[in-house]
């Protein structure tokens, strides 16, 4: 067993757990971390990056099980808020599923690179600054207050997250805030919306790339990444909800811009960290 490879997998899991629900692009950070650590072959690493996101989503299901169950049963019992949330999540997931199945592999081939990540980070950071400087009036304080129309619009905005560096959570949170959803509700809806999208993408990628992995060790590496991403994401979710209740996202905007510029600097100068 390659212990160094397992250590790198654990580090990747921590990066995923910390970045998945922050508006800073988890995929972008994972790609960069993979390159910096020379983690696995590119083919295996690309699948690993998608697969371990399911660990972070498992943390959402664990943390919000009661509310998610309420949404699921509400679609059957007709309880208003649960029904609206349940159908809203389904409708919001449709655009990215359709676009992802149609163009996901093309996007991965063309845009899974440092330049695309950097541009996505910078543009996303500027948008966050704009929305925080010009906040719309809040009309939906809790996630159950979102209308079906809100959910559909957020689902359409989520399609942008197929571009590495854009950030799924960033697109959905800022998009929801633009529609008049509170920062806390936008953050939680982004958590929930990731469940069908990320689980579906992860399982599909594993199925399509099953023959990439050879032997028990490869699957142990994936298991380590999943477990570590679950634990670190669970801690991050609790911290982020407490954070957004009192603060804005400006720190993440500046982080995105700084990171994007730094990536461009290294890309165009050929400098290396080591």
**SS content category:** mainly alpha
Helicity level: over 70%
Q: Largest sheet, if any?
A: none
- The total count of strands amounts to 0
Mean pLDDT: 90
Distance between the termini: 26 Å
Seen as an oligomer or otherwise, the chain set is: single chain
Using brief descriptors, characterize the structure shown:
about 270 residues
3D structure, described in words:
The protein is an all-alpha fold and 274 residues long. The chain has one domain. Helix content is 78%, strand content 0%. It has twelve helices and no strands. The chain has helices at 3-19, 26-37, 42-51, 53-63, 65-77, 80-111, 114-133, 148-158, 168-178, 183-208, 215-244, 250-269. It is globular. The chain crosses the membrane at residues 47-65, 85-103, 110-131, 151-177, 189-207, 219-241, 253-271. Its EC number is 3.6.1.27. Belongs to the UppP family.
List the helices and strands and how they pair.
Blueprint: H1 3-19, H2 26-37, H3 42-51, H4 53-63, H5 65-77, H6 80-111, H7 114-133, H8 148-158, H9 168-178, H10 183-208, H11 215-244, H12 250-269
Helix pairs in contact: 1-2, 1-11, 2-3, 4-10, 4-11, 5-6, 6-8, 6-10, 7-9, 7-12, 8-9, 9-10
Summarize the structure.
The chain is mainly alpha-helical and 274 residues long. It has twelve helices and no strands.
């Amino acid at each position: 067993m390659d212990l160094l490879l397992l250590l790198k997998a654990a580090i990747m899991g921590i990066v995923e757990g910390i970045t998945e629900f922050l508006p800073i692009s988890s995929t972008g950070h994972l790609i960069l971390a993979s390159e910096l650590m020379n983690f696995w072959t590119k083919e295996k690493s690309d699948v690993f990056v998608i697969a371990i996101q399911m660990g972070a989503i498992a943390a959402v299901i664990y943390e919000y099980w009661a509310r998610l169950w309420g949404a699921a049963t509400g679609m059957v019992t007709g309880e208003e808020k649960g029904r609206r949330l349940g159908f809203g999540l389904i409708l919001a997931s449709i655009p990215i599923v359709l676009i992802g199945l149609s163009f996901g592999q093309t996007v991965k081939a063309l845009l899974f690179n440092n330049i695309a990540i950097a541009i996505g980070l910078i543009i996303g950071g500027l948008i966050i600054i704009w929305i925080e400087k010009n906040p719309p009036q809040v009309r939906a304080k809790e996630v159950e207050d979102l209308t079906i129309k809100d959910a559909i619009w957020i689902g359409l905005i989520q399609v942008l997250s197929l571009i590495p560096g854009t950030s799924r959570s960033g697109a959905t949170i800022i998009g929801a805030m633009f529609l008049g959803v509170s920062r806390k509700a936008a953050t939680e809806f982004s958590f929930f919306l990731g469940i069908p999208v990320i689980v579906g993408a992860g399982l599909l990628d594993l199925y399509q790339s099953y023959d990439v992995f050879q032997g028990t060790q490869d699957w142990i590496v994936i298991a380590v990444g999943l477990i570590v991403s679950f634990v670190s994401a669970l801690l991050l979710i609790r911290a982020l909800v407490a954070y957004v209740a009192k603060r804005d996202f400006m720190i993440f905007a500046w982080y995105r811009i700084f990171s994007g510029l730094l990536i461009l600097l290294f890309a165009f100068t050929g400098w290396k960290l080591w």
